[in-house]
Amino acid sequence: MVQRVTNTTMTRTLNADIQTNARKLVSAQQKIASGKELRRASDGPANVLRALDQRAELRRYAQYERNASDANAWIANTDSTLTTAVDRLERVNTLVLGAVNGSTDQAGRDAAATEIQGIRDELIGLANTTYLGRPLFIGVVDTGTAYDNLGVYQGDAGQITRTISPGSSLQVNLTGEEVFGVHDTVDPTNGNLFQVLDVLVADLQGGNVTGARDGLTRLGNAVERISLAESKVGARGRQLEALTARNGDVALELQSELAEVEDVDYAKALIDLQAQQFAYEASLSVTAKIIQPSLLDFLR
Amino acid sequence: MTAPVLARSVVRTRSWSIGTRDVSDFAAIQTALSGLTAHRRALEAIGHNVANAATEGYSRRRVDFTAAAGGTVPALFSKPRGVGNGVDIAGITRIRDALLEARVRAEVATKAQLEAEVDIYDRIEMALPEPSDTGLAVQLGDYWAAWHDVANQPQELASRAALLEQATTLTTALNRAGGQVENARTDVVAQLQATIADANALAGRIADLNGGIRSAVAAGLQPDDLLDQRDVLVEQLSGLVGGSAREDDDGMVDVYVGGSAFVRGDRALSLEVMDGPDATEPDVGDPFLRVHLAWSGANGEVSVDGGTVGGALRGINDVLPRYLAQLDAVAAKLVSSVNTLHQGGYALDGMTTGLDFFDPTATTARTIVVSSDVDGRPELLAAGQPSGVSGAGTFDGSVAEGIALLSASTDGADSAYRTLIGKLGVESQAVRRRSEMQASVVTQVTDAATSVRGVSIDEELGNLVASQQAYSASARVLTAVDEMLDTLITRTGVVGR
């Protein structure tokens, strides 16, 4: 390239070089100051898309975590309610066993009946347990309470689910009928837990020991149903735990991937900054040296 | 790129036998005088060059000398003496390479066009800042999450009210983004009008200078400085509207844009911004109405691809409407997908159904708004299915959950937005890269052009010394002749005095 080098060429070239170096320096500084590699879509379209996906995914996982903690509360509440119910029914069982014993007189049976009546009311209360103002066993219908005082189910068979991982949702509720049995208006002995208890109380009060013995079997069936429900809830709890743990891992993984894509590698950025700074200073000092002399300095 | 090699004359020598004839002593004075005059002119040119060393568009001047021959036709008493009559000034050359200058103009036009496009992509990227903690993607994510919260607690008015708040935040963000893209277009149209006014003014000045140049040429003058001024303006004009320039014999330049002459000789047309065949003013209210240029008083469209104007037109007619349409598609997708599910759901009372979440008539990014069906009425949000018990409310959140799951839908609003950002990133990056490359191309061709026409102070100083010496030497010759004549006049014929 045989070119005449004129003074304007020289100043323009030097100017452009200084500008380029200054721009690179500023960009290196901005990267370090913001800590972000990507500040707009054109900074790296592929990486920006990855960052967008990862951010959306992270947002979803944050929501899964919220959903999971809500599901966990449902399950824990249900579980403890059922445990209490089973405890109370153990007591009923003991009372009935004592009452149907040949040595127990009617007064003893009446006393047992009164206590069982109390436990029955307590169980209605348990069946109406609410979580955040919402009865646990009511299904999805809003009728106030799950059971009325007569032990008649007011709810429906609605399922409540929580999305706790991509593409999978977990049922968190049990309906009253699943736990306490189905009400039978025609044959109370074949009815739900509360009817069974009502029949027991009536039998004890009426001195119907044979009936009370049969009631014991029905009570056993009711307890078994509640235990089954309890184990269902337990299984859901374990599934929830496993999914939550996995979600945590995935979220952590996503977080680190996002940081890898979006955040500045400080070691590299600082070295870049040093290099740019050096280039900038070098171009300044070279300019100072080159631009000054002309033939004028050497003529008499 | 090599600088044109200036022709050097091959030296041929030949001796003529002229004998020893009488010569006029006064001829030597003329010869010395021609040297003095010529070198003084050379010094003037050097002074002009040095004075204009930093003048934009200045082409250096060179005084071309030629040896003055003696008369070639002998007369009775006047015969050539064989040694010539000193020096003549053959002319003053304005040194520039027309081809390189044309290339500079073309590359400058492309550079200006790309820079205008980069500005437009800048505006879009500012309207859609991704990835960020406040961009639309985040707002969408928060919106879907709010639906999840409603699904978890459908009976809670608080979570429903929070959802409505988040929905308003999202629609406002979309309105703002759409508005910013639309405003960008309005601004670019206004800039275009200003640029066109500049271009018209430049064309007028070029035509004026052309006229001046023609008169000067006709009067036998050499209007170098007018030419320089005019060429600077021509370069500026091609930065604005691209096009090409052609010099005619009178020294005038015609500038062609879109196939017709913007400037022809000393006459210039003027351009106007139009947005329809008959409209006179662009109606920037409609971002999808095509804007074009036309010659004042004529209807045909003038197609301009290059220069700032070319870039602005591309932004106005292609880039900005395209991204606005894509943003509108995101909004439309959001409205239709959410409304479809929402209409199938039931309000908290378990009976009200068929409500819209977003206003179904407002399906653009600039207009999207929460429907008046549910705005301010959190209990009417359709989160679930009816209970089946007549007259009873519902705790069901299945519809809310379904809407929340639209978040991951592959043809939903999020995925449309993602596609938009991906496209924006790729296109914007490509334009930026081309713009950077073009800038270095312009630097190279400008360097090449100035290496021909630019003033080098060192070179001028060298010439200065040479001319100064030659001037002194010519003066010395004159002194010598003077002394010789003195000898002849005052010291001869004094015998016996």
Short description:
Chain A contains seven helices and five strands; from the N terminus they run αααβββββαααα. With 300 residues, chain A is mostly helical. The longest helix of chain A has 55 residues, at 45-99.
Instruction: Summarize the helix and strand pattern of chain B as letters.
Output: HEEHHHHEEEEEEEHEHHH
- Most strands sheet of chain A: 2 strands, antiparallel
User: What is the overall number of helices of chain A?
Assistant: 7
**Spatial extent as radius of gyration of chain A:** 39 Å
Contiguous uncertain segments of 5+ residues of chain B:
1-22
Give the strand order, joined by hyphens, for the main sheet of chain A: 1-2
* Global shape of chain A: rod-shaped
Tally the beta strands of chain A.
5
Give the fraction of residues assigned to helices of chain B: 40-55%
**Arithmetic mean of pLDDT of chain A:** 89
The helix-strand sequence of chain A is: HHHEEEEEHHHH
Average predicted confidence as pLDDT of chain B = 88
Rg from alpha-carbon coordinates of chain B: 40 Å
Helix content of chain A: 55-70%
Distance between the termini of chain A: 33 Å
Defining key terms:
heterodimer; A: 300 residues; mainly alpha; two-stranded antiparallel sheet; B: 497 residues; 4-stranded antiparallel beta sheet; 3-stranded antiparallel beta sheet; disordered N terminus
Q: What topology emerges from the helices and strands here?
A:
The complex is a heterodimer of chains A (300) and B (497).
Chain A: H1 7-34, H2 45-99, H3 106-127, E1 130-131, E2 134-135, E3 141-142, E4 161-165, E5 168-171, H4 176-180, H5 193-205, H6 209-262, H7 266-291
Helix pairs in contact in A: 1-7, 2-3, 2-6, 3-5, 5-6
Chain B: H1 26-51, E1 61-67, E2 87-94, H2 98-127, H3 136-152, H4 157-218, H5 224-241, E3 244-247, E4 253-257, E5 260-264, E6 267-268, E7 271-274, E8 292-295, E9 301-302, H6 307-343, E10 393-394, H7 398-404, H8 413-453, H9 457-491
Antiparallel strand pairs in B: 1-2, 3-4, 4-5, 5-6, 7-8, 8-9
